[in-house]
C-alpha cells in the first residue's frame, strides 16, 4: 500500500504537457527561478542521457528535472547524484513496499530485479568555479519499457511490468520530491558521509568483479567502495584505483546504456 505524502515545503513545481527536454528547459528558466523547482513534462521530444545519448521516453513514464542553485563548489555539488539516487530509491520503496527489489548502480542508475528502471543526469553551469544552477534530471520507466535498447545492454524494465504497481507520473513526482527534500536536508546538515553509507548499503554488485570503461581505458576489478569524493574504487591486480567517471559493466554486459542512459 502506498504511503500518503505531500508536496515538500520550499519546492516549486512546473508541469508541462510537452517539452524537448526537461533538462533543456531547466537551462532556459534557471535564471528566473527564486528557489528549488521541479520541472516535469508529460512528453519529451528530445530527451537525453549521459554523454549526449538519447533517452527514449514512452508515454506514462516520468521525465522530470530538479533545478537548484547550490552554494557549494562544483565537486561537492556533484555529490547530489548520490542524494538523487537515494531519494529515487526511497520513493520507489514508498510506492511498492519492495526495498529488496531495487539496487543502485554507480554512477547514476536504479535497477529493478537487475534490469534498468531509471537513470539520473546532472548538468550544471557557472563561472569561475561557482555554479549558477544545477539541473538533476530523472527518467523513470513507470509504465512502459522503451523499445530502443543499445546492443549488449541489459534490457530495461518498467515498474508496472515488474511489480504490478501503477502510478501516474505526476503522482510519482510528489513521492520523489518529498523523498528528495528529506535527503537534501540530510546532505545539508550532515554532509556526504551518511549519504555515502546509505548508498553503499543499496549498491549493486558491491564486492563483485565489474568493469569500468572511461573512454581511454578499461579497468576490471572488485568493486570495493565509493570514496569520500564519490569516486568508484576498484581493487585490481595492480592495486586500488579510484575512478571519477566511467561506464560500468557487469559480467561483460553493459548495464548502463539501456533506454538512453
From TrEMBL:
Alphabetical keyword list: Biotin, Ligase
Gene3D superfamilies, alphabetized: 2.30.30.100, Bira Bifunctional Protein, Domain 2
PROSITE patterns per the UniProt record, alphabetical: BPL_LPL_CATALYTIC (PS51733)
A GO MF label: biotin--[biotin carboxyl-carrier protein] ligase activity
Catalytic activity: biotin + L-lysyl-[protein] + ATP = N(6)-biotinyl-L-lysyl-[protein] + AMP + diphosphate + H(+)
InterPro entries listed in its UniProt record: aa-tRNA-synth_II/BPL/LPL, Biotin_CoA_COase_ligase, BPL_C, BPL_LPL_catalytic
Protein EC: 6.3.4.15
CDD domains found in the cross-reference section: BPL
Domain BPL/LPL catalytic residue range list: 9-188
UniProt name for this protein: biotin--[biotin carboxyl-carrier protein] ligase
Organism: Roseovarius pelagicus
Amino acid at each position: 500500500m502506498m504511503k500518503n505524502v505531500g508536496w515538500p515545503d520550499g519546492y516549486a513545481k512546473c508541469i508541462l504537457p510537452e517539452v524537448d527536454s526537461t533538462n533543456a528547459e531547466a537551462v532556459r528558466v534557471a535564471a528566473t527561478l527564486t528557489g528549488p523547482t521541479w520541472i516535469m513534462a508529460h512528453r519529451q521530444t528530445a530527451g537525453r542521457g549521459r554523454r549526449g545519448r538519447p533517452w527514449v521516453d514512452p508515454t506514462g513514464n516520468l521525465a522530470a528535472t530538479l533545478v537548484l542553485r547550490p552554494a557549494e563548489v562544483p565537486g561537492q555539488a556533484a555529490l547530489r547524484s548520490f542524494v538523487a539516487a537515494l531519494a529515487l530509491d526511497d520513493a520507489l520503496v514508498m510506492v511498492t513496499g519492495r526495498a529488496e527489489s531495487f539496487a543502485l548502480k554507480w554512477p547514476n542508475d536504479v535497477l529493478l530485479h537487475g534490469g534498468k528502471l531509471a537513470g539520473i543526469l546532472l548538468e550544471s553551469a557557472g563561472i569561475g568555479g561557482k555554479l549558477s544552477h544545477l539541473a538533476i534530471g530523472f527518467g523513470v520507466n513507470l509504465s512502459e519499457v522503451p523499445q530502443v535498447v543499445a546492443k549488449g545492454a541489459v534490457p530495461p524494465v518498467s515498474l508496472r511490468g515488474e511489480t504490478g504497481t501503477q502510478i501516474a507520473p505526476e503522482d510519482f513526482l510528489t513521492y520523489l520530491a518529498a523523498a528528495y527534500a528529506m535527503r537534501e536536508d540530510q546532505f545539508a546538515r550532515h554532509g556526504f558521509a551518511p549519504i555515502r553509507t546509505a548508498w553503499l548499503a543499496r549498491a549493486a554488485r558491491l564486492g563483485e568483479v565489474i568493469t569500468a570503461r572511461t573512454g581511454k581505458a578499461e579497468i576490471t576489478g572488485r568493486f570495493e567502495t565509493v570514496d569520500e569524493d564519490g569516486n568508484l574504487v576498484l581493487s585490481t591486480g595492480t592495486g586500488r584505483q579510484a575512478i571519477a567517471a566511467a561506464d560500468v559493466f557487469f559480467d561483460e554486459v553493459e548495464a548502463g546504456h539501456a533506454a538512453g542512459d
